[in-house]
UniProtKB/TrEMBL annotation:
<dbReference type="InterPro" id="IPR023753">
    <property type="entry name" value="FAD/NAD-binding_dom"/>
</dbReference>
<dbReference type="GO" id="GO:0051536">
    <property type="term" value="F:iron-sulfur cluster binding"/>
</dbReference>
<comment type="similarity">
    <text>In the N-terminal section; belongs to the NADH:flavin oxidoreductase/NADH oxidase family.</text>
</comment>
<keyword id="KW-0479">Metal-binding</keyword>
<dbReference type="Pfam" id="PF07992">
    <property type="entry name" value="Pyr_redox_2"/>
</dbReference>
<feature type="domain" description="NADH:flavin oxidoreductase/NADH oxidase N-terminal">
    <location>
        <begin position="9"/>
        <end position="338"/>
    </location>
</feature>
<dbReference type="InterPro" id="IPR001155">
    <property type="entry name" value="OxRdtase_FMN_N"/>
</dbReference>
<protein>
    <submittedName>
        <fullName>NADPH-dependent 2,4-dienoyl-CoA reductase</fullName>
    </submittedName>
</protein>
<dbReference type="Pfam" id="PF00724">
    <property type="entry name" value="Oxidored_FMN"/>
</dbReference>
<dbReference type="InterPro" id="IPR051793">
    <property type="entry name" value="NADH:flavin_oxidoreductase"/>
</dbReference>
<keyword id="KW-0285">Flavoprotein</keyword>
<keyword id="KW-0408">Iron</keyword>
<dbReference type="InterPro" id="IPR036188">
    <property type="entry name" value="FAD/NAD-bd_sf"/>
</dbReference>
<dbReference type="GO" id="GO:0046872">
    <property type="term" value="F:metal ion binding"/>
</dbReference>
<dbReference type="InterPro" id="IPR013785">
    <property type="entry name" value="Aldolase_TIM"/>
</dbReference>
<dbReference type="GO" id="GO:0010181">
    <property type="term" value="F:FMN binding"/>
</dbReference>
<keyword id="KW-0288">FMN</keyword>
């Protein structure tokens, strides 16, 4: 039956034909996402539980993280690989769990090439990537031949393990791209030379895979639509490649945007939703097999719109399925307002993986911890009071209600969200509003007694069985002479709109919030075309890799961002997003000053000393972003046991990731 709200998204699709054809129950693909669980054989049960929960949540096709076809293709030392029967046998645990839950799953085969974080890495040439310290060795002609066959063997092993399909990773700058692009392939054997000869390697990978697995087993190929690096492929080359691959046996094209070394953000919050959909639509005009859209699609509405417009046949969402395992089930039940939306922050997923930690999710700390962080239904019906509705308190209240406790949430302001409400005012962080929509709706559905504009007292809390205090933080106002001057405002005043700064602004403190506030102060509205122009994204039909000269930004204000540390500004920001925030500061002509001592603030502006030389930054407004102090008055006044969480517990380097995790964990342990 056609779904009334998402008729295209929830419509089945059959991939391939013949006995191995795969019918998916809907068009939602959970895109490949390396979690770290793939790399350790002893984590196979955790991996199975992670996928099983998503299969139960209704997703059409799951694609695993990348598995190397050879040791030299590892992402890091001893990383995941699919190279022998033992591996295939072990994976039956994963495929069985997904099948029992009614789902379908594909194994991704990925050779890291020069992105391999180890000394054995190999590539089309010995050119080092700018994002890894290891110089690869150039593959011999025989090595390339051997590697193409190894890919095919991994594909065959995946089938043996019970996988319903495979995905060959041909995007994001990994080995296959390194063969395709002139940037990294300067070979003069049969695997290089002209653009067509550079295509020989991926085409052979698909051809040999097809030979080993027969006509019908679905082979997904993730094709790079836009390399976003100099010396990347042109659109003409991409379409020629797609046609060769289709002829060699590809069943479906998944799509990818940008190599990892590209200096254009492709998936983080500041990238407009659906930014890359038009490129998928362009590919769909070229090939006959189904095409899957990806990157910055995080709601069922947007996915439905892309399919309804005929821009793609499937939609891939990786991080949104990390954020909410029941994404599809909720869409199906017309409960999309209860979806815990991925806010594209990368803080607990990609940033973890790049730091060699297990992935999780900022808005869903259970992700990849399904067997460890369990919210069991309570056997003892207790009353729980949660005081403060910032991220920690919201997570605690919702988790407690999900466990079956009788929950009351006190919030002294009329709005829920605390510091998170301020964050969503930052340009490019508008998606954060979805997290508050999710929590607010869940509180409603679960019947939590939410008391807004209510400052809880010790007396109010006396009758509750459990009390959780999450009273949050307040902006720290440092002890600088003149801090009471009329020109001084806190970041909270500015982001909430209570204070509108003048044209010339000094920002004190260059942590995450100082950087965000500088972006807020300099930002001017931009549509998708302008966003692309500011990042130098052009038409790949005109320039290789789709890069062009970036259009300069016209900042709304003149901003100077100051810190006491002598390190470069913004180096402590997230690994996979910090570089983009730093780039925006530069594009917005924000003056950056490190190693400053604050002398005073007066009518002339902010007086500082740098390298022993005093100077004044002449400004109309000084915005203080100097961290936070815990708000603990209530907790200290309580004459009973209570759980202290979030910023009220530890203010230093508090972020929503820690707050939501702590709020969930404290309730799991009740
Ligand atoms: P923060 O990261 O601790 O930065 C505050 C900065 O203020 C410090 O780096 C410090 O730098 C300066 N400072 C501290 N005490 C000071 C004092 N007494 N006088 C003058 N300067 C002082 O805190 P935040 O920027 O408020 O951010 C809060 C949390 O939210 C952090 O955990 C942050 O990671 C998170 N957040 C993350 C993002 C993101 O994009 N991932 C964005 C926003 C916030 P100096 O000592 O060098 O001056
Ligand atoms: Fe999305 Fe952030 Fe969760 Fe990653 S950590 S899945 S980007 S919400």
């Amino acid at each position: 039956m056609t779904h009334p709200r998402y008729p295209h998204l929830l419509e089945p699709i059959t991939l391939g034909d013949g006995p191995d054809a795969l019918t998916l129950r809907n068009r939602v693909v959970m895109g490949s996402m390396h979690t770290g669980l793939e790399d350790h054989p002893w984590d196979i049960d955790k991996l199975a539980a992670f996928f099983e929960e998503r299969a139960r949540g209704g997703v059409g096709l799951i694609i695993t993280g990348g598995y190397a076809p050879t040791k030299r293709g590892w992402l890091k030392p001893f990383a995941s690989e699919m190279t022998n029967r033992l591996h295939a046998k072990r994976h039956e645990r994963v495929t069985g769990a997904v099948h029992d839950a009614g789902g379908a799953i594909a194994l991704q085969v990925l050779h890291a090439g020069r992105y391999g974080y180890h000394p054995l890495s190999q590539s089309a040439s010995d050119k080092k990537s700018p994002i890894t310290p290891f110089k690869p060795s150039a593959m011999s002609t025989k090595d390339v031949d051997h590697t193409a066959t190894a890919f095919a063997k991994s594909v065959a092993l995946a089938r043996k393990a019970g996988y319903d399909a495979v995905e060959i990773m041909g995007s994001e700058g990994y080995l296959i791209n390194q063969f395709l692009a002139a940037r990294t392939n300067d070979r003069d054997d049969q695997w290089g030379g002209s653009a067509t000869r550079r295509m020989h390697f991926p085409v052979e990978v698909v051809r040999r895979s097809r030979e080993l697995v027969g006509d019908d087993f679905p082979i997904v190929y993730r094709i790079s639509l836009l390399d976003l690096v100099e010396g990347g492929q042109t659109w003409e080359e991409t379409t020629e490649l797609a046609l060769h691959l289709q002829a060699a046996g590809v069943t479906v094209f998944n799509t990818g945007i940008g190599w990892h070394e590209a200096r254009v953000p492709t998936i983080i919050t500041q990238v407009p939703r659906g930014a890359w959909r038009s490129y998928t639509a362009r590919l769909k005009q070229v090939v006959d097999v189904p095409v899957c859209a990806s990157n910055r699609i995080n709601t069922p509405e947007l996915a439905e719109e892309i399919l309804a417009n005929g821009e793609a046949d499937l939609v891939s969402m990786a991080r949104p399925l990390l954020a909410d395992a029941a994404f599809v089930a909720k869409a199906m039940d017309e409960r999309a307002d209860e979806i815990n939306t991925c806010i594209a922050c990368n803080q607990a997923c990609l940033d973890h993986v790049f730091a060699n930690q297990r992935a999780s999710c900022l808005v869903n700390p259970r992700a990849c911890h399904e067997t460890e962080l369990v919210l069991m239904p309570t056997l003892r019906k207790q009353t729980v009071a949660v005081v403060g509705a910032g991220p920690a308190g919201l997570a605690a209240a919702v988790s407690a209600a999900e466990r079956g406790f009788d929950v009351t949430l006190f919030e002294k302001s009329p709005e829920l969200g605390g510091q998170f409400r301020l964050a969503m005012a930052v340009p490019g962080k508008e998606d954060f509003a979805d997290t508050l929509r999710y929590f607010t709706r869940r509180l409603e559905v679960l019947g939590v007694d939410v008391r807004r504009s209510t400052e809880a007292t010790a007396d109010d809390l006396a009758g509750f069985d459990q009390v959780i205090v999450s009273t949050g933080v307040e902006p720290r106002m440092p002890d600088i002479p003149g801090i009471d001057h009329a020109s001084v405002a806190s970041y909270a005043d500015v982001l909430s709109g209570a204070v509108v700064p003048g044209q010339r602004v000094a920002v004190i403190g260059a942590g995450g919030i100082g950087v965000d506030v500088s972006v807020f102060l300099t930002h001017t509205e931009e549509d998708l075309d302008e966003w692309m122009a500011h990042w130098g994204v052009g038409d790949p039909a005109l320039t290789a890799g789709g890069l062009t000269e970036a259009k300069p930004r016209t900042p709304a204000r003149e901003v100077t961002l100051v810190q006491r540390k002598t390190t470069p500004i913004g180096i402590g920001l997230g690994k996979t997003s910090g570089w983009a925030h730093r780039a925006v500061l530069k594009q917005s002509k924000v003056t950056q000053v490190s190693g400053a001592t604050y002398d005073r603030i007066d009518d002339d502006g902010l007086h500082i000393t740098v390298d022993g030389a005093p100077r004044v930054i002449e400004v109309d407004t000084v915005v203080v972003c100097a961290g936070q102090d815990s708000v603990r008055g209530l907790y200290d006044a309580l004459d009973r046991d209570a759980h202290l969480i979030g910023g009220a517990d530890v203010a230093a380097e508090l972020d929503a990731k820690r707050a939501i995790k702590q709020g969930t964990e404290v309730v799991a342990a009740l």
